Amino acid sequence: MKNYFFIMLLFVLASCANKEEPNEGMKRVLADLSNSDKNFAVIPLPDSIVKMEKGKFQMNSKTKIYTAVETISEAYYLLSFLKGQPNNIRYRLDEDMDHLNKYGIYLMIDRKMKEEEGYSLKITKDYIKIVAKNEKGVFYGIQTLRQLMPDIAEEENAGSENKLITYVKRGVIGNNMTVPTCEIYDSPKFLFRGMKLDVSRHFFSIDFIKKYIDMLAMHKMNYFIWHLSDDQGWRIEIKSYPELTAIGARRAETIEGKNFNPFKGDGKEYFHFYTQEDIREIVDYAKDRHIEIIPEISFPGHASAILAAYPGLGGQKEYNVKTEWGEFDNYIYPTSESLLFFKSVFNELKGLFPSKYIQVSGLGGRSKYIKDKELKNLGFQKTSDLDDFFINNLKNWSETSGKKMIIGDIASVSVTSRSQVVLMADIQKESGKHKNVIILDNQNFLDFSKYPTKKKDKDQISFGGYLNTKDVYLYHRTFQKHSTILGAEATLRSDYIFSEELAFKHLLPRLPALSEVLWSNQDSLNWYSFKSRFNINLKGKLDKRNYDYSPLF
Question: Is the Cα dihedral 513, 208, 447, 439 positive or negative?
């Protein structure tokens, strides 16, 4: 039986979805209705939530997961939130689970379902059933189930054997691990839901990268873009070019604050990179959470670290890994040597990253730093010809390698429709210019490196002004779903983000806002509903995970 207050909540939210500010009376109604259904404060908001008759599914130490063979990995993942142990899992084939004659949680595959990433979640007093077309949909159903569970389920390492005994003794499992009965149907609006992390300017540990991936998974994001090179450092081992890490991963020092003129550095050498074993470990970790890792390499611009290691690729005799932030006039020249470098590096990336995409920054406009005389000596008449030379070679490599190339910085690039090239663009500026598939990257809404709040921390420094969570959420008003829009990608540059604490304060709660913009039906998007659901539910779960986050404003 549908709950009256929940139906009214949906009605009220829909009625004010396109209004800037609800009046005071409306705010009180929204608060009352949200509080009455606080158990369903899910982010991102599903397509449909129907609250069933009163009752809850009670979890305890005997609760078992019944899983299809295909979803064993998802079952183990879910188990970590249920405080169970591996020997509690029971493996069942789909047809055996149809009877639902055992008290437990059922993970089921139905290949006839239409949506590739969609799922249904049904919770009764007797069972929980997640059904999806594939493993990815089951995983997203588990993320929704996580948000319906008590905050205690998010306590770190709670699934270990010692913790299990502690929880049982405290009675938490038997008394508090309950989930409200409901029926949910859900699928994403956009197929590309990406979040970038820059590790060139500041490096982050493997443990941090895993926490970052966990946060993306919690919000049903499906692409992690790993910015592995820039002027300030090359961060991935390439066996065919060992100097990239021996020299390119090492900078003499790092600028202090914004002391550009005169320059003031910290006097400390900065030397970090990921081995190929590190990369494989993280790729496997992300795969278990249905996140594709897309490597991003700066080429042929933003190439100071590359050129410091292999100066023959440029027009000067010496280059240095940059110790400050900004744009620099270092550009890889279009020679047979640079093409060999490009193909060798990208072939190694192909072997390390199974994603169908590789992303390139540093294209478009960077060639303006090559003098006209040098340009003509290289056989080009104008800078756009030089840019197109590299893009065509990227395209040719991607066609033969089975990869798609995502290209950013396209302002001066004369790209037309090419099936292997995906463009980063602001749809308002680029719509109609290109026939390519587009990933939105409007930095007015998607640059999470900006100050998250107007009230800055004492030591906080940032580029590019201020971007609050509401601005990120209202990004959905600037575009409609369009046949060429694949999704969007937000950026976390690390110029002044040098710690885990700062990284999460820049990421949260803007990531949950973005996840709802990219996942949920546009007609249901409402800032006040989101704000209420974040405060009611998600804050507590982030606290249990010990994640730092900024205020909503």
Answer: negative
**Phi, psi at 43, each rounded to 5°:** -130, 125
Query: What H or E segment, with its residue span, contains residue 48?
Result: strand 48-58
CA angle 50, 542, 182 (to 5 degrees): 10
b/e code 503-520 from CB counts within 10 Å (16+ = b):
bbbbbbbbbbbbbbbbbb
Backbone φ/ψ region at 171: left (φ over 0), alpha (ψ -120 to 50), beta: left
Distance between CA 44 and CA 101 in Å, rounded?
Answer: 32
pLDDT tens by residue, 485-515? 889 999 999 999 999 999 999 999 999 999 9
Total-model pTM:
0.88
| Residue-by-residue DSSP string for 214-238 | HHHHHTT--EEEEE-EETTEE-B--
- pLDDT value at residue 329: 79
Distance CA 395, CA 390 (A): 9
- Maximum pairwise Cα distance, the chain: 79
Tens of pLDDT, residue by residue over 430-468, are 444 555 677 888 878 899 999 887 766 655 677 778 899
Q: Which of 50, 47, 39 is nearest to 1 (CA)?
A: 50
- Nearest-5° angle of CA 477, CA 478, CA 482? 100
* Beta bridge mates, 119: 132, 186
> Which pLDDT tens digit goes with each residue over 120-175?
999 999 899 999 999 999 999 999 999 998 888 887 644 333 333 333 333 334 44
Using CA atoms, how far apart are residues 129 and 313, in angstroms rounded to an integer? 57
Amino acid at 33: L
Alpha carbon distance 312, 276 (integer Å): 25
Locate 98 and state its tokens.
């149809």
Strands 192-198 and 485-492, by their bridges, are parallel
